[in-house]
Amino acid sequence: MTAAVCLECGRMKTGAWKACPVCRFVPESLEDRARHLITTDHYLKPDKLEAISREIQAGQKPQFVDEQVRAVMEQLEQIDKDPREKQRMQRVKLQVRLVLIALGALILSGIWLWVNRG
Ligand SMILES: [Zn+2]
């Protein structure tokens, strides 16, 4: 079970790429999928996810760190290119996590700035 945030309406949902139970939004583009993957409990603490959820429901648009989104998009693109890779999703997730850890400072400052904005 993956706790995720719908970046359209801000409600918590299960599974980054599943349809939102409230607004039915499904992330389809590479960028949308990368953003929804980042806002799951795989990469962010539950209290961070809840803060993001509240901000979106309050009408704010989530701000992502470009380097972070691009890094995840590159990993997802590699999975899309090679169908065999899909069976190795767990390994790719680990690689994505390592990239995110490397960008950790950027991510934290980006989310922090966004959550505390305004
Ligand atoms: Zn939604």
TrEMBL record:
It comes from Prosthecobacter dejongeii. It comes from the Bacteria. Keywords: Membrane, Transmembrane, Transmembrane helix. The chain crosses the membrane at residues 94-115. This is CHASE3 domain sensor protein.
